Amino acid sequence: RAAISRLNTPPSSAAKKQCESWYYETDGICCNKCHAGFKLVEKCTSNQISRCTPCGDGEFSDQINFSSTCRRCKRCKESKNEEQVSPCQRDSNTKCQCKKGYYKHNIDSETYDCVECKKCGPNETLTHPCTRETDTVCDCKENYFREKGKCEPCSRYVSHVLRWRSSFPSLCPAHHHPQFMNMIIGFAVLVVLLVLGILITFIATKRSFNKKMLSLSSKSSVQQTEQSQDFLVSINEPSVETSLEDATETSFGEQELSKLPDCVPMITDFIYSVLDLVPLQQMKQLVRSLGVTDTEIEQAEMDNRYCREAHYQMLRVWAQRAPRTVGGGKSETVHRQVLEELLSKLRQLHLSRAAEELETKYAIQ
């Protein structure tokens, strides 16, 4: 009654206050809306309320409104497997539901189809029966699992169970097949052992190959050295005077070497200076550019536990190949040609700062 009395209250001026939800604004005044089940026939005036009339047959209006028309009632379609729950009234629409044996499949918020309920197939058990809102839910029987929409016996797929077990949670329980699980475990262990065997064989073969390559390289170097020594001896034998001159020059060279200033680098000191200046991650790139082979690099890494000592050995291999002044023992010095080659490679690798520091330290012009 309170709602009706509010709707029948004379209209008020919209200028005084905003219209409440029971009213709507028109021509500057707040007019009352029509009740549910009614439609607007005539708008209100300043001294008269809105005039409403009931919805006609086959029409309804389920909320207060100021519409001049009512909505048409829905019809339950038997052809779409619908049946009527309650008829249409002036203030409510027709209510329909799916027939027995069908469920409501929503297409969007207002549209749906009545779809026939699913029936559990062979080797399936009923989990949840079909309702007018949800479809039937079926699951595989014990010792069966689902594949491509069908329930298949576990015994048919023993060889593929490892692949399917992770994909199908309804796969046969392990406690029903102790022998079956033993087969799975044995197969897994066999695969792991096979992979480990292949990996170990590969590593051993690679190391053996590297050692052979290094051995061949060392033998070749020794043979070349022996041939050079034989050649020098054959040249020196014909002339005793030449031998005396060479001995004199060698003695003079050793005396001069002892008088050299500190700026002439010894091999060991020079290599450690290079290690201090060249970044660790660019060391292999540097020695490769200097002609050190990958086999020699790998051998240096295998012979030395620490990176710095391995890099020292790589540079030592390079320095020993180049011509140098030999004074015996710790007096080996780096030839100028070797210094210039290293400085050139450093600049090519964008390590100009390291090259400049070496030039400054050893007074290389």
UniProtKB/TrEMBL annotation:
GO terms for cellular component: membrane raft; receptor complex. PANTHER family: TUMOR NECROSIS FACTOR RECEPTOR SUPERFAMILY MEMBER 1A (PTHR46861). Residues 268-362 form the Death domain. SMART domains: DEATH, TNFR. Residues 54-96, 97-138 form the TNFR-Cys domain. GO terms for biological process: apoptotic process; inflammatory response. TNFR-Cys repeats lie at residues 54-96, 97-138. Coiled coil: none annotated. GO terms for molecular function: tumor necrosis factor binding; tumor necrosis factor receptor activity. Disulfide bonds join 55-70, 117-130, 120-138. It holds the Pfam family Death. The chain crosses the membrane at residues 180-204. InterPro entries: DEATH-like_dom_sf, Death_dom, TNFR/NGFR_Cys_rich_reg, TNFRSF1A, TNFRSF1A_death. The keyword Disulfide bond applies. Keywords: Apoptosis, Disulfide bond, Glycoprotein, Membrane, Repeat, Signal, Transmembrane, Transmembrane helix. This is Tumor necrosis factor receptor superfamily, member 1a. The keyword Membrane applies.
